[in-house]
Design a protein that fits this description.
The chain is an alpha+beta fold. The protein has 10 helices and 11 strands. The strands form 3 sheets. A 5-stranded antiparallel beta sheet has the order 6-5-4-3-7. Strands 9-10-8-11 form a 4-stranded antiparallel beta sheet. Strands 1-2 form a two-stranded antiparallel sheet. Helix 1 packs across helix 3, helix 2 crosses helix 3 and helix 4 runs antiparallel to helix 5. The radius of gyration is 27 Å and the shape is elongated.
């Protein structure tokens, strides 16, 4: 990063976050504290109102804002494509905000940049996921509870349950965040029934109620996929004829992959075997489960059942 970009970046960081220490800025921009101090002097000399305080670091004088930013064609395309993706993925309120933001961004662009943006947009596209069935009203209510930190109660349909009676149950949760993954929305929340953080697919939520109780999200919580509860190891050997395709479209549960005498040995970690059994069946005879034996036996049983179905169907043909 050159010095000009770093100076602009420092101002943007201070404008967004307030007080920052020299060591924090040095870590962010991968430079030394001494360089940061020199940068601060340079900003002051150019008229940027930077103030400092022992123990707190640096900040901008309250009320100072950067003048409007000029976007390059590439930067404008990224912003406009991002706004379009949000408009296609979120509920009505955010869709309107995304479209409004895109309109404002376009209005700030000079004619030459607008023409370049139009050419790039004509050549780039993000295709919306087909079959997205999340109820926009449900998504809006869950989003509101996440932002306001209000507890939720709902009926949840669990796909992989120990018995049929346990497949539908009532949950009370503290909603920590929302994740959009492969066209589906997931609520990440603390579940009071399970006494831990769990993921809930919004399409499986019914009878949602926002409760009056509020909560504080843990300061150390990070919104990311949780793997600590995946304690079942699955090892599968794929035939070399499909190795390329296994690498190209890995399972969500994949942990490691390695060559094994021309074939591909892949390790997965899941919560329950049902999460991966159907996907492994799709590879047919080109995938062989090495462990656990219970999964190998289950797939063999499914294969025999499939064969029996086709044999029965064949016998009914005239």
């Amino acid at each position: 990063m050159n010095r000009t970009d770093r100076l602009l970046g420092i101002v943007l960081q201070l404008q967004a976050k307030g007080w920052l220490r020299a060591e924090d800025l040095a870590a962010t921009f991968e430079t030394s504290k001494r360089t940061i101090y020199r940068d601060m002097n340079a900003l002051t000399e150019t008229g940027i109102p930077v103030v400092s305080s022992p123990g707190q670091g640096f900040a901008l004088v309250e009320g100072y804002f950067l003048p409007p930013v000029n976007f390059s064609a590439d930067e404008a395309v990224v912003l406009l494509l991002g706004a379009g993706t949000m408009a296609d993925s979120f509920d009505d309120a955010y869709c309107q905000s995304a479209r409004s933001a895109a309109t404002k961004i376009r209005a700030t662009l000079p004619a030459t940049i607008t023409e370049a943006v139009d050419r790039l947009e004509d050549r780039l596209s993000f295709v919306r996921s087909v079959g997205q069935t999340t109820d926009p009203a449900l998504l809006r209510r869950v989003r509101s509870a996440v932002v306001s930190q209000r507890r939720l109660r709902f009926t949840y349909h669990t796909r992989y349950a120990q018995d049929e009676r346990a497949s539908v149950n009532r949950r009370e949760v503290d909603p920590y965040g929302l994740v959009h993954h492969e066209g589906k929305w997931y609520l990440i929340a603390y579940c009071h029934l399970r006494q831990g953080v769990r993921n809930f697919r919004l399409e499986r939520i019914e009878a949602l109620t926002t409760l009056p109780q509020s909560f504080d999200r843990p300061a150390d919580f990070v919104l990311q996929q949780r793997e600590d509860d995946r304690d079942v190891t699955v090892r599968v050997l794929f035939d070399q004829s499909v190795a390329r395709w296994v690498r190209e479209e890995p399972s969500f549960f994949q942990e490691s992959i390695e060559e094994s005498e021309g074939d591909l040995l892949v390790t997965y970690r899941v919560r329950q075997l049902d999460e991966i059994a159907g996907w492994l069946l799709s590879w047919g005879a080109r995938a062989r489960v090495l462990e656990p034996a219970t999964l190998s036996d289950r797939l063999a049983g499914e294969a025999r059942a499939i064969l029996a179905n086709y044999e029965t169907a064949k016998s009914l043909l005239p």
